[in-house]
Design a protein that fits this description.
The chain has 2 helices and 30 strands. By secondary structure, it is mainly β. The N and C termini lie far apart (119 Å).
Length: 426
C-alpha cells in the first residue's frame, strides 16, 4: 500500500509541475511578444491579474461560420493613462491598445474613437470561446463576447462505408460518419440504376448514420446517397455503390434455328451475372474458338454487347454452313458463384422438303432463313385399306368412308423435325 500511495503522490507532483511549466511558458510567450512591441512586462502581468480576479460572465453571443470573418465589438472611453487590451479564452493578451501581442496576423485591432473592435479573419473552430475587452482603469472595466463558430458538415470518407460488393442473400450495412457543429442530420436516398436516375428517399431517423439492407438481391444493385446537413453551408454527400454477386442466368432468344447449307447464321445467348465471368459456345463437347484471325479460315466469330438488363449478349457467327455444322450448340457461362448452360439447335432447312405429303407449309414464300414454329393442319386423309373376305359366319364390317388424320404441332423443343401422324382405325 505504501508503494501505491507513493505512486499517487509522484503522479500528482508531475501534474502540478506540468501545469506550472505551461503557465510559465504562456507568461514568457506574452513577455516575448511584449518585448517585440516595446511593452512593459509588468503591464501585461497587471492586466492578466486584473482579468483573472473578475468572474467570467456571458454578455454577448456572436456567431460565424468556419472560414468566415467576424468582428467582436468593444466600446471604451479611455483616458491618458488608461489602456485597452483584448484577451482570449486562454487568458492570452492579443492586443494592448493598437499594438499586436499575439503572433497571428488573422487578428486585427479596428480602433476608431471609442471603438476598440477585434477582427478575426479565416475563423476556425479553435477560435471559438469567450473573449474579453479590458480597460486598464480604476475600477477595471470588462466586456465579454462569446464567439460561437459553426462548422458546415463534412463526411469522413475514411470512417464511412466505401463501395460494397456483397453476395446475394447477405445483409449489408452502410455507415455515414460526418462531423460539424451543430451535429449534422442525416438523410438517405437511393438512385436506381435504370434510365430514370432519380433518387428516392429512404425513410429513417435524422440521426441515422447507419442503414441495413436485409437479404440483398440482384435488384439491389443501386447507388445509395447519404446527405449530411446542419443548416450551415451547402451540406455534404456521399455516394456508396452496392454490387450484388450472383451466379449466371442464361436466356436464349431462340432455341431452334433453321438454315441452309452454304449460308451463314448467328447464334445469340444473353447472360446475366455478376461478375460476368467466362462465356463461350461448345458443340459436340468441343469449345468453339474465334477463327476470324486465322489465315485462310473464317468459320466462327464471337461478338459481345451489353444487354438492356446490364448483362451481356454473346453472339456466335457461323460462316459457310456445312452438314456437320447442324446439331446442338451449348452456351456456357461461369463465374465465382456458379455456372449455367443452355442448348440451341441449328437445323438443316432442307429437311423440311423431305415430307411433301405431310408438310402443308409453303417454305418458298418465306424469305427469312429462320423458322421458329410450324404446324400441321388436320386435313390429311389416309386411303382406304383393301377389303378382306369375311370369315364364314363373321359379321360384316361397318362401312367407313374415310380416315381422319390428327394434326401435330411441331414445337421449338423437338430434335430435328418430327411428324407424328395418328390415324384412326376402321
Amino acid at each position: 500500500m505504501a508503494c501505491f500511495y507513493k505512486m499517487i503522490w509522484l503522479i500528482s507532483l508531475l501534474l502540478w509541475t506540468l501545469q506550472f511549466i505551461f503557465a510559465q511558458n504562456s507568461l514568457d510567450r506574452q513577455a516575448s511578444y511584449a518585448a517585440d512591441a516595446s511593452i512593459d512586462k509588468t503591464k501585461l502581468e497587471e492586466i492578466m491579474n486584473k482579468a483573472a480576479s473578475y468572474e467570467r460572465k456571458s454578455e454577448m453571443n456572436i456567431t460565424t461560420v468556419e472560414g468566415g470573418e467576424v468582428i467582436l465589438p468593444c466600446s471604451m472611453v479611455t483616458g491618458e493613462k488608461s489602456a485597452v487590451a483584448w484577451m482570449d479564452k486562454m487568458d492570452n493578451v492579443l492586443f494592448y491598445n493598437e499594438q499586436r501581442i499575439i503572433d497571428d496576423e488573422r487578428f486585427e485591432m479596428l480602433h476608431s474613437g471609442n471603438q476598440w473592435n477585434l477582427q478575426i479573419k479565416n475563423v476556425s473552430t479553435l477560435d471559438g470561446g469567450q473573449y474579453r475587452c479590458l480597460l486598464n482603469s480604476s475600477p477595471v472595466q470588462l466586456k465579454f463576447s462569446d464567439l460561437i463558430v459553426y462548422k458546415p458538415p463534412k463526411i469522413d470518407r475514411v470512417a464511412s462505408s466505401q463501395n460494397i460488393i456483397a453476395d446475394e442473400g447477405m445483409n449489408v450495412t452502410l455507415i455515414c460518419n460526418a462531423s460539424g457543429y451543430p451535429q449534422p442530420k442525416y438523410k438517405w436516398s437511393v438512385m436506381k440504376t435504370d434510365d430514370s436516375r432519380q433518387p428516392e428517399d429512404i425513410p429513417g431517423p435524422e440521426d441515422g448514420q447507419v442503414i441495413t439492407i436485409y437479404n440483398t438481391q440482384r435488384n439491389c444493385e443501386d447507388i445509395y446517397i447519404c446527405t449530411a446537413d446542419n443548416g450551415y453551408g451547402a451540406g455534404d454527400q456521399l455516394q456508396i455503390s452496392v454490387k450484388v454477386t450472383f451466379p449466371p442466368n442464361i436466356s436464349l432468344p431462340n432455341k431452334k434455328l433453321y438454315h441452309t447449307v452454304g449460308g451463314q447464321t448467328v447464334l445469340s445467348c444473353e447472360v446475366d451475372a455478376f461478375p460476368l465471368g467466362v462465356m463461350y459456345w461448345t458443340k459436340d463437347g468441343a469449345k468453339i474458338k474465334d477463327s476470324t484471325q486465322s489465315e485462310g479460315s473464317r468459320k466462327y466469330k464471337y461478338s459481345f454487347e451489353e444487354s438492356e438488363s446490364g448483362g451481356r449478349i454473346m453472339r456466335l457467327t457461323i460462316y459457310h454452313i456445312q452438314d456437320r455444322d447442324f446439331g446442338f450448340y451449348k452456351c456456357s457461362a461461369s463465374n465465382t458463384k456458379g455456372r449455367a448452360e443452355e442448348y440451341m439447335e441449328l437445323i438443316n432447312q432442307a429437311m423440311l422438303k423431305k415430307l411433301p405429303a405431310l408438310w402443308p407449309y409453303d417454305t418458298s414464300t418465306s424469305a427469312s432463313p429462320y423458322f421458329t414454329d410450324f404446324a400441321l393442319k388436320p386435313s390429311y386423309t389416309s386411303p382406304r385399306r383393301p377389303s378382306r373376305a369375311p370369315r364364314p359366319g363373321a359379321p360384316l364390317p361397318s362401312p367407313v368412308s374415310s380416315v381422319s388424320c390428327v394434326g401435330v404441332i411441331l414445337s421449338k423443343s423437338l430434335l430435328i423435325l418430327h411428324v407424328v401422324v395418328v390415324c384412326l382405325f376402321l
